[in-house]
TrEMBL record:
This is Sarcosine oxidase subunit beta. Its EC number is 1.5.3.24. Transmembrane segments: none annotated. The keyword Cytoplasm applies. It catalyses: sarcosine + (6S)-5,6,7,8-tetrahydrofolate + O2 = (6R)-5,10-methylene-5,6,7,8-tetrahydrofolate + glycine + H2O2; sarcosine + O2 + H2O = formaldehyde + glycine + H2O2. Its cofactor is FMN; FAD. PROSITE patterns: RHODANESE_3. GO terms for biological process: tetrahydrofolate metabolic process. Keywords: Cytoplasm, FAD, Flavoprotein, FMN, Nucleotide-binding, Oxidoreductase. It is found in: Cytoplasm. It is an enzyme of class 1 (oxidoreductase).
Amino acid sequence: MKRYSAFAIAREALRHHTGWERAWRSPPPRAEYDVVIVGAGGHGLATAYYLAKNHGITNVAVVEKGWLGGGNTGRNTTIIRSNYLQPSSMAIFEKSRSLYEDLSQRINYNVMFSPRGTLMLAQTEHELRAWKRTAHANRIAGIDSEMVTPEQIKQIVPIIETGGPRYPILGGLYQARGGTARHDAVAWGYARAASALGVDIIQQCEVTGVDRDANGVTGIQTSEGAIRTRKLCIVVAGNSGVLADMAGFRLPVESVALQALVSEPIKPVMDCVVMANTVHGYMSQSDKGEMVIGGGADGFNNYTQRGSFHHLEETVRALIETFPMISRLKMLRHWGGIVDMTGDRSPIIGTTPVPGIFINCGWGTGGFKAIPGSGWATAEMLADGAPRALAAPFSLDRFTQGRMIDESVAAAVAH
Ligand SMILES: Cc1cc2nc3c(=O)[nH]c(=O)nc-3n(C[C@H](O)[C@H](O)[C@H](O)COP(=O)(O)OP(=O)(O)OC[C@H]3O[C@@H](n4cnc5c(N)ncnc54)[C@H](O)[C@@H]3O)c2cc1C
């Protein structure tokens, strides 16, 4: 694979851009692979890349029913931060955030990581206490994260209304090294880098069944035929329950729609990501100038990847209260993705009741930020057959052993 560089751009400019290669190969599926990963979202692709890069395992297929990155990875609002509450969450999210820092250089693909800072508002006394506790926990873990006053918030985000009518802003939890990245580029970059190392990415190939014998998994049935494997990793976000059902076990996850919208583009007004849990909305500004707005998850289970109007109304109302200057902006598009939520709002990475089948799911509303760290940890698990330290706390059996990793305050709404 030819490297992308300033020199390559100049060379192609001189020969009318006739020399660019396809970013990744699209081979037909082979009959058998050492590892098959279902789902070419960020987590599946990152897992494939780190399997090849860190562990030298390249006889790998990533099987995707649609187009790569077309699930939640290409639908999210791209917030990246690591200031979670529990030690195991902080460890995996900080690993991920730090991998994002030089990801573009490592995979030779510009993922547009922008550490512009993330700010989570406290608008009730309860929230203020919760964020203070998180800030202390973050400090103990060596993660940069601090409490800021309403005055500091006004300096960081001049367009914010701190004395709002219902819920004045009492403070905020700020992570200066948090930020955003371009979601498609993360999927495309990992796909290109994994493909260059020999991984087969097979799009338009839906998994319809899982084959087993007395010793565990033997392969999968797909719309492109059967594929044999003794190691299967299910990484399908909102469809996790469906795949688990095919494999013959159940997961403690619920699939719900989560939605987002963008406004018409405007001049730069905000260079920080702001999340307002109490009034329920969050906003950042894209490089194109659109205000990127995220809302809440639907209160009922479903599998349709689209938004619902009542949530839009609530989200926009919350944000107009927080940023009155957006009240006359036109909204351009809205969309939804299906996220899989666990009871403790933490992911599941681990083995399953079926030998040879591994799972990575349950990232709910906040898994974009985790893509590099999760891929790293899942690749370790697939290489060794069991999770290492980063993934071990997130095993499926924590639900039967009562070892919850409670992030319901830190992760349920505001990513
Ligand atoms: C509106 C919205 C906003 C969000 N905002 C943020 C945010 O700001 N920050 C953050 O950190 N996270 C955010 N998230 C969450 C984040 O997007 C997800 O946690 C993350 O993208 C999950 O990635 P994934 O690779 O696990 O899943 P996905 O990207 O959904 O990939 C799973 C893939 O599996 C494929 N698949 C499913 N079934 C099959 C099958 N039978 N056969 C083959 N392939 C199959 C799907 O087609 C899909 O491409 C948001 C999500 C949404 C919907």
